[in-house]
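Why should sequence recovery work at all? Because a backbone constrains its sequence more than one might expect. Tight turns favour small or flexible residues, buried strands favour hydrophobic ones, and helices have their own preferences. The token representation captures these environments compactly. In the example below, the structure is given first.
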């Protein structure tokens, strides 16, 4: 019987200054994985390898023990240490790029469709002009929030350190129900409220529970891309209904007779800023009742109304329990908090709790408890007023500066709610050219064209434009940003 072949270790070098055992482990593992013929080859004894590399025997022993525990090597009593017989890794063709891995697409794989709606951006650093979706976080009560978080942890909250109720902390749910009754006119019970990781998770939970593959969903068009993406990711078919100054054109619902769900943002439609008129609210509710369909009401920017009283939510006038109301603390507190809530019809609460449990169980308890204290001690109401005043001042500053310097680019309306404003343009080319010039000047602007449902007609009225968020930018910085745009857009 021939002697076993030894694993070739020529070329292993260890550098001083880095942990030697980690270097040796990495080197031996790469030799074993990278050489398909290494299975069954013999390794030198620990003392022999230690002398070869001029390191301690204990270092080699520790590395061998780790490789043995992970199944890379095996020991044979009285015969030494060998590379374990491992299955060969799949070969990569010479023509393929080893850094590109293509997942096998199942015929029902839906994420490529959902990716059409992906406009997700990662925001690094402080807010800049004119980033959307960010409130006036320079007004955030850092000291108060830190004190409430500290109070929670100093109380040694062992009762809140396990798996809590999947609907969320009971005290926070009760406070949210109280807030909705008094501030939004929505009568609901704490048992109907489910705390979520922001509004987006609430939308995703609704999609998972209410929709099946090929169900039809109607959304506003242009739309909030993340909601459309959530519905698409569960296999639903998305249909856009036009939006005008009164919000979604509910008369177009008859064009989608089998729609199972409608998604709307009545308080402030993104990206147009329109509010849904009362006549259309009633028409939408009538449609849901007759069709036995569902309505997801996303109270987007609902706290930011600059004239008159906040509009009555759909859920507050719903008589048939067909509306699912979604709210969030992101726009009053800060988006990174990831705390939102869903008000579910009573007949769906148990089903939603099951889906919520399977999704991610619950948001961090420390944030829930700090938010409960923030609400119960009156900080939230005071902070909401302060944030609304700041947003209003910044809206007015942007409108004044735009009218003074950039009115020739397009008309900027005086929005009555929300944290952004939209300027319509004639062509896609002009939209993209203006945005590229703005980016080069350090000004961030979102294209209106990115918010339309894929496949929408190019002839759609007002398809192109600029979406500017104003709430996160201080007034002097708004003026400076507009002056920068004036310079780079001088020839437009």
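From this structural description, the recovered sequence reads:
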């Amino acid at each position: 019987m021939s002697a076993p072949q030894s694993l070739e270790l020529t070329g292993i070098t260890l550098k001083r200054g880095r942990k030697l055992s980690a270097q040796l482990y990495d080197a031996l593992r790469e030799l074993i994985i990278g050489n398909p013929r290494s299975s069954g080859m013999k390794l030198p004894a620990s003392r022999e390898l230690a002398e070869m590399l001029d390191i301690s025997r204990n270092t080699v022993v520790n590395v061998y023990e780790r490789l043995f525990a992970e199944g890379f090597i095996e020991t044979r009593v009285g015969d030494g240490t060998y590379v374990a017989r491992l299955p060969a890794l799949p070969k990569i063709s010479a023509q393929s790029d080893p850094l590109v891995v293509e997942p096998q697409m199942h015929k029902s794989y839906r994420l490529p469709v959902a990716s059409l709606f992906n406009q997700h951006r990662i925001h690094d650093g402080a807010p800049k002009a004119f980033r959307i979706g960010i409130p006036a976080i320079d007004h955030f009560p850092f000291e108060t929030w830190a004190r409430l978080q500290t109070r929670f942890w100093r109380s040694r909250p062992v009762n809140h350190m396990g798996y809590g109720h999947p609907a969320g902390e009971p005290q926070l749910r009760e406070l949210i129900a109280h807030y909705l009754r008094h501030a939004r006119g929505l009568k609901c019970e704490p048992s109907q409220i489910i705390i979520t990781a922001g509004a987006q998770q609430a939308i995703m939970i609704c999609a998972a529970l209410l929709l099946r593959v090929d169900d039809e969903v109607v959304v506003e068009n242009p739309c909030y891309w993340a909601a459309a993406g959530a519905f698409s990711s569960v296999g639903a078919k998305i249909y856009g209904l036009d939006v005008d100054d009164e919000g979604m054109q509910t008369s177009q619902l008859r064009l989608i007779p089998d729609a199972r769900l409608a998604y709307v943002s009545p308080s402030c439609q993104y990206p147009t800023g329109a509010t849904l008129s009362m006549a259309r609210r009633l028409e939408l509710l009538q449609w849901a009742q007759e069709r036995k369909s569902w309505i997801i009401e996303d109270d987007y920017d609902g706290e930011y109304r600059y004239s008159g009283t906040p509009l009555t939510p759909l859920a507050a006038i719903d008589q048939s329990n067909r509306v699912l109301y979604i709210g969030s603390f992101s726009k009053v507190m800060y988006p990174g908090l990831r705390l939102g809530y869903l008000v579910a019809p009573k007949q769906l609460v148990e089903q939603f709790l099951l889906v919520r449990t399977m999704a991610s169980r619950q948001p961090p308890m420390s944030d829930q408890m700090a938010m409960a204290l923030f609400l119960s001690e009156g900080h939230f109401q005071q902070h909401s007023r302060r944030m609304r005043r700041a947003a209003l001042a910044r809206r007015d500053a942007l409108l004044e500066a735009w009218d003074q310097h950039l009115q020739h680019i397009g008309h900027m309306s005086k929005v009555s709610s929300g944290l952004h404003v939209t300027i319509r343009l004639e062509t896609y080319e002009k939209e993209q050219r203006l945005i590229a010039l703005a980016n080069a000047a350090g000004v961030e602007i979102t294209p209106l064209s990115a918010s339309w449902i894929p496949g929408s007609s190019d002839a759609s009225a007002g398809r192109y434009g600029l979406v500017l968020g104003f709430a996160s930018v201080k007034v002097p910085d708004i003026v400076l940003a507009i002056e920068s745009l004036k310079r780079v857009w001088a020839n437009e």
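A few observations help interpret the result. The first strand starts at residue 42 and ends at 43.
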